[in-house]
Amino acid sequence: MAVSIKSAREIELMREAGRILAMVHEELGKAIHPGMSTLEIDILGERLIRSYDCIPNFLHYNGYPASICVSVNEEVVHGIPNKKRILKEGDIVSLDAGLIYKGYHSDAARTYAVGKVAPEVQKLMDETKNSFYAGIKMAKAGNHLHDISNAIDAYISQFGYGIVRELVGHGIGTQLHEDPQIPNFAQERRGIKLRPGMTLAIEPMINLGRADVEFLDDDWTVVAADGLPSAHYENTILITEGEPEILTLLK
Ligand code: MF3
Ligand code: CO
Fold first, then answer.
1. What's the gap in Å between 129 CA and the centre of ligand 1?
2. CATH number at residue 16
3. Could you tell me if residue 1 is inside a domain?
4. Index of the ligand 1 atom closest to the CA of residue 234
5. In the chain, at which residue ranges do the beta strands (DSSP E only) sit?
6. For ligand 1, atom 4, which residue shows the shortest CA distance?
C-alpha cells in the first residue's frame, strides 16, 4: 500500500487528534499512584477520550478488550487492564493510548514510574524517550525512513539494552496502522523517501535486558522473555518541509 500524504485539511485534523491525546496522557500521568489498578487507568482513559467527543481506537481493535494498553514492568506492550493488577511503589507502567477525532487517528505511549524506581530502571525509561528524539531528528523530508530506525538503534546500542524487533512503528491517519512499518533497529536498505504530509507513529520499545519477547496466553500481552523491565515511548509526528512536528505533545 502506498504511504498516504495528508492534505492541509487532514493535517489540521491530525493536529487536533494529537493535541487531545496529549491532554489525555497528561491527565493519566497525573493520576498514576501506588494502589491504583490497571483497570482504573483504562476506565479513566476511556472517560477522558470520550469527554473530548473522540473514540478510543484501540477498543475492539482486532479484539483488544480495552481503550488503554497498560503494561507493567516486564510487560512490553498490549497489557490488558485488570482490576486485580495493582500498581505498587517501584513499578514502572507503560500507557499506550490512541483516539479518533473526526475520522483521524492519533497514537502515543509513555512509561511512568510508580513512586520511586531503581536508578537503572529510571535510566531505561529516560533513554527510551531519548531514543525517540534521536530517531525523530532524522524525520525530515528528503531523508529516508530507515534513517530513523538506524538512529534509534545507534542511540540505544551504547547502553546494551535490547531493542524489541517483533513490534514496530507505523504510518497513521484515517487508519491506526498504515504503511510504512518503522522498525526500531538498524536496516540494510534505506527505505522510502520521507515527504512532507506523511504522519508517522515512532515508538521504540526497549528492554533493560535481552531483546527477546514472549506472547502471553491472553493473546495480547507481550513480555520481555528474561523478565526484566521494558519501556515504551511513542508520539505521532508530521513530516514537514522543515523540522518534524510532534503532534501528541502540548506546545
Ligand atoms: N500503539 C499500539 C500500536 O501501535 C496500538 C495498540 S494495538 C491494540 O500497535 F490492539 F491494543 F489496540
Ligand atoms: Co503505535
1. 18
2. 3.90.230.10
3. no
4. 1
5. 55-56, 68-72, 75-77, 92-101, 104-113, 162-163, 169-171, 178-182, 199-202, 205-207, 213-215, 222-224, 230-232, 235-238, 245-246
6. 169
Enter the C-alpha cell of residue 96. Answer: 499506550
95 lies in a domain?
A: yes
| Overall number of domains in the chain | 1
Residue to substitute in 61, 95, 236 for testing ligand 1 pocket (most ligand atoms within 8 angstroms of CB) = 61
Q: What is the pLDDT of residue 251?
A: 84
Cα dist. 251→20, 102, 179 in Å?
12, 22, 27
Q: What is the pLDDT of residues 8-52, one digit of tens each?
A: 999 999 999 999 999 999 999 999 999 999 999 999 999 999 999
Mean pLDDT taken over the chain: 98
Instruction: Quickly count: other Cβ atoms within 10 Å of residue 63's Cβ.
Output: 7
- Residue bearing the CA closest to ligand 1, atom 5: 58
Q: Which atom of ligand 1 is nearest to the CA of 57?
A: 12
pTM of the shown model = 0.98
What's the rounded mean pLDDT across residues 176-197?
Answer: 98
Q: What's the rounded mean pLDDT across residues 153-178?
A: 98
Range of the domain at 181: 8-245
Domain-embedded: residue 150 = yes
Residue 157 domain-assigned? Answer: yes
Neighbours of ion ligand 2 (CB under 5 A): 107, 201, 203
Whether the pLDDT of residue 1 is over 80: the answer is no
**Contact residues of ligand 1, CB 6 A cut-off:** 58, 61-62, 64, 69, 78, 96, 98, 107, 170, 201
Q: Which ligand 1 atom minimizes the distance to the CA of 170?
A: 4
How far apart CA 184 and CA 93 sit, in angstroms, is: 21
